[in-house]
Write a structure and sequence with these properties.
By secondary structure, this protein is an alpha/beta fold. The chain is 30% helix and 23% strand. The chain contains five helices and seven strands; from the N terminus they run αββαββαβαβαβ. Strands 2-1-5-6-7 form a five-stranded mixed sheet, with helices on both faces. The chain has a two-stranded antiparallel sheet with strand order 3-4. The longest helix has 13 residues. It is globular, with a radius of gyration of 17 Å.
Length: 166
Amino acid sequence: MSEDNMEKYQRPTWDEYFMEIAHTVSKRATCDRGRSGCVIARGKQILVTGYVGSPTGLPHCDDSGHQLKRVVHEDGKITQHCMRTVHAEQNAICQAAKLGISINNSTLYCRMTPCRTCAMLIINCGIERVVCEKKYHSAADSEKLFEEAGIKLEYFNDEVIKYDKQ
């Protein structure tokens, strides 16, 4: 095959690169409801990573099952959330704190829109941009918080993540 017929290799963008790494990090997740990974980067450098899982030394969902809690929202909608785990974003933020790494003015890459609690932590950490692969089923609260705080929120696509017992 001549060079003219060969497709030229396309390097991933930095956002694609960091999102692919977040996918790899998610393979360590220990809760099958929303196996998620997170990368926090500044410039072209990874600062920390995190994945969804139980606090250190405590039982994992994959081993002991989920601790589901039903939440009734203001509009009457009921959702279920696993209380056994720490979210990927929270674990990445904790790693930065543990290691003394500033994540101010950084970008966070994650599988789905961070929950409201994660969004508040992201705001207070000084993260300036959040890039998500897809939307979370209850993304509206977080989207509003990010908008009010002036944090750029970007999606690879508008698909909403679906998983069991949502």
